[in-house]
Amino acid sequence: MFFLTILLFSYLQMSQQIQKTTANDKEVLSNPRLIPVQGTLNVVMNQNVSLSCHSDSGSPPVRYTLFKHNQKVSTLNRPDLAPGLFNLTINSASDVGEYKCKAETNISSGGKYSNSLNFTLKEPISKPVLSSPTSQAKKGQNVTLSCLSENGSLPITYVFFKGRQSISPPVTMQKRAAAVIFLFISSSSDFGTYKCRAENSCCNITKYSNSFNFTLAGERSHSRPLIIALVLILLLFITGFALAIPFFIIPSYKAKKFKCTRSSTGCTSTVNAEDSENYVIYTEIEPVKPEEEYVNFSVIRREDEKGENLTL
Ligand SMILES: *[C@@H]1O[C@H](CO)[C@@H](O)[C@H](O)[C@H]1NC(C)=O
Ligand SMILES: *[C@@H]1O[C@H](CO)[C@@H](O)[C@H](O)[C@H]1NC(C)=O
Ligand SMILES: *[C@@H]1O[C@H](CO)[C@@H](O)[C@H](O)[C@H]1NC(C)=O
Ligand SMILES: *[C@@H]1O[C@H](CO)[C@@H](O)[C@H](O)[C@H]1NC(C)=O
Ligand SMILES: *[C@@H]1O[C@H](CO)[C@@H](O)[C@H](O)[C@H]1NC(C)=O
Ligand SMILES: *[C@@H]1O[C@H](CO)[C@@H](O)[C@H](O)[C@H]1NC(C)=O
Ligand SMILES: *[C@@H]1O[C@H](CO)[C@@H](O)[C@H](O)[C@H]1NC(C)=O
Ligand SMILES: *[C@@H]1O[C@H](CO)[C@@H](O)[C@H](O)[C@H]1NC(C)=O
Question: Which of 92, 121, 150 is the last residue of a domain?
Answer without folding.
Answer: 121
